[in-house]
Design a protein that fits this description.
2 copies of one chain form a homodimer.
Chain A: E1 2-14, E2 21-32, E3 35-41, E4 50-55, E5 59-63, E6 65-70, H1 86-97, H2 103-119, E7 122-129, H3 132-142, E8 145-152, H4 158-171, E9 179-185, H5 193-206, E10 209-214, H6 218-228, H7 232-238, E11 246-250, H8 256-263, E12 267-271, H9 273-278, H10 286-291, E13 295-298, H11 311-326, H12 334-348, E14 366-370, H13 382-388, E15 395-400, E16 403-407, E17 410-411, H14 416-425, H15 427-431
Parallel strand pairs in A: 1-4, 1-5, 6-7, 7-8, 8-9, 9-10, 10-11, 11-12, 12-13
Antiparallel strand pairs in A: 1-2, 2-3, 5-14, 14-15, 15-16, 16-17
Helix pairs in contact in A: 2-3, 2-14, 4-5, 11-12, 12-13
Chain lengths: 444, 444
């Protein structure tokens, strides 16, 4: 018996090098264990040879979406920091609200955010937050894939790095490899060079990568240059961070020299355009990154800036905003945007060639999207509708690591009501802003 | 017997002048005929005195959304003109594709677009297209509200104006007033001054307003100034268009002097930001318009640029893009964006104080939105979630002119399958691009 047959679907295929998208029709996808075994025309396989069969006529199968930078438990505060500058957003809101955080909140917040992501077809997330042992427990339970990094500020001292290392040792590769880990210093503006250097050394020792915010806007780059003659990206290079596989969140303030540096290292850029617009930050030069061969992945960032964890929105906005910035409707074409959403996001996530494509041998993280809705009709172009029309609510079925975790929009691994009730019960406690409990200061 | 009771809902209230949003809890809305009679705390009304009762516990009631500028039947071509400049978009795609248009396509295309809008909570649309007698029949059937203008090019001569006038005489006020009409010359770059003047005179004679594209981008303004020493807005002023209530679509290329002119006339600006980004046009100076007291309404434009008719996306993008352009996260606040989406869009639509607010005496165009979805939870701010989290698929129930037209996402006035099948049947014929059938040329 083979494990799973997805019967009679369309399959989105994204070419490995030049961005090019093709849709195959009337296909079966054969899954064995946690991997894709075969894609073949419908009716060659005998459904009775499979433990489980999903009839997927009219559905599009595509790689599960990858969120390359988030702070998932921050869904607990969404809607609480609105219409404020980035300084106030940090100092008057986020870092005061986070003073209320208990380890248990990370568990329930992760579950809540994971449910939102599953319902929107996001099967993998690179999450950067606190108390990540509890995030890992939530991911283990819910059945998705995650790259988890325990966020650290320089002010916490080397004990924080030791704690993060212990987390890595405990959780790396757990849950059949669905959980991977990394070392996650917060940013060059909250970690001094010694701390960054120690983080890189620890990551190297552990054999994992890093995940860090850097050059979030031009102002950070300007101030860094003024204060120390180095851009934030140069700081990452000099402290050894870039010697290891690293996710750099945002890089909206990347200097042309930085792009040269980034292109020479195994760096992936996480791109979260809704946050950049909402906080009136700069928009990262994605076209320049890609010309330089740097991997770019879609991201949401946390839900206190975004205010959702919806990767479809990020996909739409990367296309729209790159056209806007280039003053050309001809750039960031549909195939290129889909390439970023799939293969390139997998590269940023550190699973290049394993995720982000539906091919024999790849990990079986697959979503089925219903394109029958009137907002897609008539369906002249599947590719166009994926970038410009598809909503999270069009995702019907989600498979991660070969296992069904949502079917026809019913969650199979978690009780949604229990999780939302838990979040609602704790709303009031979590929403109290208290200046004396602020966990950090944003002061470039 | 009173007609309709919406029981135990939350009600979004937007203040009439300063943008300010409040949510009332546990309210009943009493509707008689096509108007709102009363909003009062739940349990004061006896449900047995009503012909129809909608239990709306947990739902938010808000004014039906208004799409102040669209070309609804263009849904028939969505996804066919991608990643091209505005010149090629017109000359190589749209105006060739429109050579295939038959009157019947307008009927079925309007129905298809109307279904998409109803499902997304859009109850009114200002539609600017061809064969509008068939659009009117579709609107009459489906039960929504529309302001319809028969699009005209100067090259069609005065017969086009006469045909449009006949349409106005036939359809103005039909369907209990749900259908209103206007005169709709295409744009200053496709209509000469005599044609614009004749259009304005005809509108005045008929006692209706106008709906026109103008200053769609800076380039149009620049070329107009170069060729004739007038901006497109000044052309509208000089030809008498602005002496009548007029919807100006886009005005992204509005000059500071234009803003002064617009503020002195009964002009509403229709704002369709997704189109502007997708075609790499300029973003209209909405903050300047509003400072000058000019009404701004949300719009989608046609689905060959947008590619949907989703006003929630326009709402999100007006907020995000105005922050981006102003380099300030503090502008276009949530209450201001909601004000534009409701009261100000009603003003652009020509029904100021009648639509866009839930108050006794207003027309009963109301939608019920489900904010229980995980992507809204925990719900710290209803206002924030409406701007940044809500999807078209969250709209559950739609009432127009006092009548239920969608209930719990089931359409009550139209067979969705019949309409989508019709569109699918005609896809191939409509998608053929033929240079020799091009209906116009974009050549500033």
């Amino acid at each position: 018996m083979t494990d799973l047959l997805i019967r009679d679907c369309q399959v989105l295929q994204i070419a490995a090098r030049t961005p090019q998208a093709v849709v195959l029709h009337e296909q079966d996808i054969v899954i064995h264990g946690n991997r894709i075994q075969l894609i073949q025309p419908t009716n060659l396989a005998d459904p009775s040879h499979f433990r489980q069969v999903i009839e997927a006529h009219g559905m599009l199968a595509m790689p599960g979406l990858i969120n390359t930078h988030a702070h998932v438990p921050m869904v607990l505060w969404r809607g609480l920091a609105e219409d404020v500058s980035i300084d106030r957003w940090f100092n008057d809101y986020i870092w005061q609200l986070e003073g209320n955080l208990k380890p248990d909140d990370v568990y329930w917040g992760t579950l809540l955010g994971q449910i939102e992501m599953i319902e929107g077809g996001v099967t993998s997330v690179a999450d950067h937050y606190f108390h990540m042992n509890l995030a890992a427990q939530a991911v283990e339970r819910v059945g998705t894939r995650a790259l988890l990094g325990w966020a650290m500020f320089g002010s916490q001292g080397v004990e924080a790095i030791e704690q993060a290392a212990e987390f890595v040792r405990r959780w790396q590769g757990v849950a059949n490899g669905r959980i991977r880990t990394c070392i996650a210093p917060h940013a060059p503006y909250t970690c001094d060079d010694d701390f960054l250097r120690a983080s890189a050394e620890q990551a190297e020792k552990l054999g994992v990568g890093l995940h860090i915010h850097a050059a979030e806007n031009m102002e950070q780059t300007r101030v860094s240059l003024e204060k120390r003659g180095l851009t934030p990206i140069q700081v990452l290079e000099q402290t050894g961070i870039l010697n290891l596989p690293t996710i750099v969140a945002h890089a909206c303030g990347a200097h042309p020299d930085d792009i040269e540096i980034l292109s020479q290292h195994r760096v992936g850029i996480a791109h979260a355009p809704k946050t950049y617009l909402k906080l009136a930050m700069d928009i990262a030069p994605v076209l320049d990154f890609r010309r330089a061969g740097i991997a770019v992945g879609l991201a949401t960032d946390g839900a206190v800036s975004n205010n959702t964890l919806d990767i479809w929105e990020s996909l739409r906005l990367i296309a729209l905003m790159q056209k806007d910035r280039a003053n050309s409707a001809e750039v960031m074409t549909i195939p290129e945007a889909l390439y970023i959403a799939t293969r390139d996001s997998a590269r940023v996530f550190g699973l290049d060639g394993e995720l982000g494509t539906i091919e024999p041998g790849c990990l079986a993280d697959i979503i089925l999207v219903d394109l029958d809705g009137v907002h897609h009709q008539p369906l002249h172009s599947v590719e166009a509708t994926l970038v410009y029309n598809t909503r999270a609510s069009d995702v019907q079925t989600v498979i991660v690591d070969g296992k069904l975790i949502m079917r026809d929009r019913h969650l199979l691994t978690i009780d949604k009501l229990e999780v939302t009730r838990h979040a609602q019960t704790n709303m009031e406690r979590l929403a109290r802003r208290q200046a004396d409990r602020r966990i950090q200061t944003y002061n470039l």
